[in-house]
Write a structure and sequence with these properties.
Elements (H helix, E strand, L loop, with lengths): L1 E4 L3 H13 L6 E4 L2 H10 L4 E5 L7 H10 L8 E5 L7 H13 L4 E4 L6 H13 L5 H24 L4 E5 L4 E4 L1 H7 L3 H4 L14 H12 L4 E8 L5 E12 L5 E10 L1 H19 L2 E7 L4 E4 L3 H5 L10 H5 L4 H16 L9 E6 L5 E11 L3 E8 L1 H47 L7 H22 L10 E3 L1 H16 L3 E6 L7 E3 L1 H17 L5 E12 L17 E10 L6 H4 L19 H11 L3 E6 L5 E8 L22 E5 L3 H13 L3 E5 L2 H10 L6 E5 L7 H11 L4 E6 L3 H6 L8 E4 L4 H13 L3
Parallel strand pairs: 1-2, 1-3, 3-4, 4-5, 17-19, 23-24, 23-25, 25-26, 26-27
Antiparallel strand pairs: 6-7, 6-10, 8-9, 9-10, 11-12, 11-15, 13-14, 14-15, 16-18, 19-20, 20-22, 21-22
Helix pairs in contact: 2-3, 4-6, 14-15, 14-20, 16-17, 17-19, 21-22
Amino acid sequence: MILLVEDNPADERLISASLAKCGIMKKVVVLREGAQVLHFLDDSVPEILLVTLDSAEVDAFDILRLVRSGARTAYLPTIVLTSLTGERTAVGNAERAIEAMRSGADDCVFKSDLTRLTSAIEEAIARAAGRREEAHLGSQGLRGMEEALRLQVVVMEAAAHPTVITGLDGTIEWVNSAFTALTQYSREEAIGRNIRLLKSGVHDGGFFKDLWDTILRGEVWKGEIVNRRKDGSLYREDQMITPVRDGRGDIRHLVAVKQDISSRVQAEAQARLSHSILSRIGNVVYVVDSEGQVRYVSPSVEGLLGYRSEELYGEGWWNRTFLDADHRDTARSSAIQVARGETKPRSKAFERGVKAQDGSLRLMLWTESTAPDNLMVRVGSDITELRQLEDQFRQAQKMEAIGQLAGGVAHDFNNLLTVINGYSALLLEGLAPGDSSLEPLAAIQKAGVRAAAITRQLLAFGRPQAIQPRIVELNAIAKDLEKMLRRLIGEDIILTAVLDPSLGRVRADPGQIEQVLINLAVNARDAMPLGGKLSIETVNVRLDESTADTHLDIPVDMPAGKYSVMSVSDTGCGMDEATKARIFEPFFTTKEPGKGTGLGLAVVHGIVKQNGAHIQVCSEVGSGTTFKIYLPHAGEPAVAAEPVSSQAMPGGNETLLMAEDEDGVRVIVRYVLTSCGYNVLEARDGVEAMKVAEAHEGPIHLLVSDVVMPNLSGRELSERLTRVRPGLKVLFLSGYTDDAVVRHGVLESRVAFLQKPFTAAGLAQKVREVLDRRN
C-alpha cells in the first residue's frame, strides 16, 4: 500500500498515473489533510509514504517529524514531492526540499520529472530495509543529495542563456534571471502567463505551424525567431526548444534555451552595408597590419584594377600591384611604420602607380590614416584619365597658341600678298600683248596666287575656319595639293593618285577638303614609319536598293543617291576593332606621349559631317587602312577662278571712306578704287577715320575697313559711324583667319566681307556689289 498526501487533485491524478505507468500496482490511499495522516498512521503502516511540499493544508514537516519519531514508522520509506513553480521561487522550493530531507525524507522528486518516481521508491524501500545498519552513512548521503539538488537549480538559474520552462499549452512555469534581463519581464510578471506575450507579429502562421509540428513529434526545434520585449522593442534570438516527457512518455513540458543575436545580426547587416558601399564607390581601400600583411581590400578593386579582393590579402597586394621589387619594399615598409605608430600618416595625398591585372599602369591618388589595433588604412582614387585630360588640355593649349601664331602670320603675310598680287594684276592689265615684261609679271602673279594657297593650307594645321561651301571638283583639289603632300609624307612613301576624270562635282568648302586630305596623309605617314605607299583615288558611286548589297563598306546611314568618293589608302600597320571604334574621338591617339594630339581624325570627322558628307574606315592589323569620304553630287558646274586679265573692273562715282593700318594695303586699295572712279577718303586707323568722317561735309556711301586695327577696331568704327550716318554701307577686309573675324563680331550673313589677299578686280567687284545692295 502507498500513502499519498496531496491536496491538489490534478497533481494527485498525475502522480497516480505515473505510478501505474511505471508498473507499481499497489493500492494508493490518498489523504488531503495532515490530521487524517496522523489518524491513519495510528491504525496502519504503508509500504511507502509520498508527501507533497506544495500544500498549504498539509504541513509536510510535521508529518515527517511524526513519522521519524514513531516506533512503528521510524524507518518508513518517505519521499517528498515538489515543483519548480508556484507561489515560491524555484530556489525557495529547492530549499524546502532540502530541509525536508534533513527532517527525515529519503528522497525528493520534482513533479515535472516523475520519471524518477519509480527508481526513487525502489531506492527508498531499500534504504529503509537497512536503515539501522546504514544509519552512520545516512548523513553523508543526505548531504550529497542536497548538493546535487541545489546544483541543478543553481546551474539553471545561473545559466548565461535565457531559459524558460512552459507547459504544453505555453503557460510559463519557470524562468531564469537571464530571461528576465532579456525580455524585461520579472519572474512574477512572466510565470503563469502564456509564452505568447513575447510574440512580435513578424512571423506568419506557417512559421509557427512548422515549430509546433516539430515539437509535437518529440523533436528539438532550432531556429531564429523575432520576439518583443516588455517595452515593445524587437529582438532576434537563436532558440532551441526541447520537449520534456512525463513518466508515461507524454510531452508535458517544453524547455526553451535562447540566445540574443540582435547585436550579431546588426553587425552582419552593417558589414553587408559597408561591403556594398565599398563595392560601389570609385575608390580602392586596403588595410595593412603592423606585420605588413594586407587584412582587407575593398571589392571595388575588381572594377578598377581587375583583381578579386581575396587574391590581394596577405602578401597579394604587394606581389601583384607593384611594378618592381624596390618600389614594393619601400611602400610596404612605409605602411608598417605607420601601422606601428613609428611614423605619422602622410598629411597630404600622394600619387603612386599600381599595376592592373591586365598589366596596364593606373595612376592612383592615395590618402592614408591609422585605425585601432595597429592598422593602417589607405584610400586610393584612379586619376589616370584625369591626368590624361590634363595632358590633352595642355596639348590643346599648345594647338591654340599655334593657331593664334598662324593667324597672326597669316594676317601679315596676306597683307603682303594683297600688295604683291594687286600691283602685279594692275601692271598686267596695262601691258600690251607681246610686251617683254608680260612673262615675268605673270610669273610674279602666279607665285603670289600660289603663296596665298599655301597660306590657306598652312592654316589648316592651326585654327578652324568658318565654312564657305561652293561647287568644287575634288580632282582639282587633290592635284593642287599633291606637291605639298609629297613634301609632307617624305621621300620613303610613294604617293599615287588615281582620279576619275568623270567625277561628279560636289558642294563643299575647298579649304576644309584640303584639311581633310592633309590630316589623312599625316595619319597614313605615321602608320608607315619604314615607308610604304599612299594612294588617293576618286570614283563615282550610285547608291540605290539594287546596289546597296554590292557596296558593303558604305555607311549604313547614307541615303540613296549619287556620290563622289575620295579614298585615301596606306600600306601601314592597320588597326584592330577596338582602335577603329575610337579613332574619331577627340584626343584619342595610339602614338607615344608627345608624338600626337589625337585631334587629326576628330577634325576630319567634324569637317565631313559639317559638309553633309559621310566617312567610312576599313582596316585590319597588318593590312593597312583605307578612309573613304562620300560627298553627294551637286549637279552644278564648278565655280572656277577666272584669269585675272579677264575679270571686269566695275566702277562708280560714290564717296568711300577707307580705314587700313597697313600702309602697303592702304595704298593699293586707294589706287584701285580711285582708278575705278570713286572718291576715296583715307585713314590709317579707326580713330583717324572718325575724324575724317566728321570733317567731311558731304555724303559717305561706303566704309571700307580692316577688321583688326589698333585703338579702334573695324566693328566699333562701323557701329559709331552708322549711328551718325544711318545709310552708310560697310565692307570689311581682313587677313586673319575667319574665327578671328568672328571674335570681332563681323562675320554675319548681312555683313560684307572680303578675305585678304584679294585681286584688284575682286576688290572692285565686291565694292560695287555692296554699293548696289539694298539696305
